[in-house]
């Protein structure tokens, strides 16, 4: 990774912006020259002013400064998502073994994330491993979460289920997650797509309650899903929200209406790229079967 000033100079030259245009009123010309040679450092506030003059966002700057590569954690998570979404579990197992003994904090967190995904695909309760413990402690100790942490915190939820070694409840995490998401909403806008993450978080908690047969708590999630402003969601967010409302109907509402809605969503998805989209068929097949069993048990109790 290059020095910050060296990357700033590179961007300035590409955009054809003079030193005066970039640094006027922020730092002296001599300081700017040394800064661009990598000899001086700069305060974060001034750096943001310079980036504003260059019309470059902090995220774009980070990408350029990292030799046009995504941050390590983002790259690792992208690998994991691709393998998991394609159900390439043998490949994902090999990936975990490859990085399991790494000393890198980012790689430890990514391994923990992958381990939990692997285990919770067909289990409702997850044991705490060395890597997942490191991730769990980090997230619980943080008072506020960054966008990256918001994206990964949902995956520790299975660690909390009926686990006496974890000093926090699902309800505690739910309140904290909602609060952190609201921090990133601006008026009627959602520039960082945190509502997509909130839907994902809700869906995991909803499924956990279904898996452990806490149906009273699961029933509370229709109100939570409906509270989300659909106008602030992107297309995938809207599809995901509708999907989980349909799953809710399979259990607690109009079963046929839920099925119909899911088939409509499948038709919409066929028009879209496969990459990164919700695996409707797999989840629907599992939940439909479980919902039928739930309804049968309720009918037996009523009789």
UniProtKB/TrEMBL annotation:
The HTH cro/C1-type domain, residue ranges: 8-61
InterPro entries: Cro/C1-type_HTH (IPR001387), HTH-type_regulator_Rgg (IPR053163), Lambda_DNA-bd_dom_sf (IPR010982), TPR-like_helical_dom_sf (IPR011990)
Source organism superkingdom: Bacteria
Molecular-function GO terms, alphabetical: DNA binding
PROSITE patterns assigned: HTH_CROC1 (PS50943)
Protein name: Helix-turn-helix domain-containing protein
Species of the source: Tetragenococcus halophilus
